[in-house]
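chain and backbone:
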Amino acid sequence: MEPFSRTVDLATGKISGASNHWVRHLSEMRDMYQDQGAVAEILRAGDPLIYEVYEIAVPEEEGQLIQCVTIIHPGRVGSEYYMTKGHYHKKRDRAEVYLCLSGQGYLLLQTEEGASQAMELEPGTAAYVPPHWAHRTVNVGDRPLVFYGVYPADAGHDYEAIEEQHGFSLMVCERGGRPALEKNPHFKRR
């Protein structure tokens, strides 16, 4: 590979020359939300875009780094804010770094052994996701939450483990007009 550079629009999160752009709509995440009545009601009216990712692909091999920008749109399903599906890395010993560019949110983290944490995200927050920690981001604001991420290209994504656990042990819900961290009543530890 040859060295390269790209421009990241800090306002929109779009990367010039992004190799991949993929999107997740509510229909692809319906089981991630606790209030299935709210999911069904929203889907009757349409299928909102929850989040999208712009990625600069490199060979998926050891030593390479993927750069991406994730944009989580504002909104809620019932009381839960829009969020990413969340994942472990298939190669659990791979870390990741996020830099929040705009918006407000949370980074939820958990291990298979049961440890969990929540970090607030705001512009300028640099967050480190250590190896063996699953991670999910949640937009708690009224504007898109945009963050830049870098991770090893051979890390892979394990969404299935999160689905088997019924999500993360912590959820971010709107309570009294403000975000609140709550225990997920359906969470099952692996």
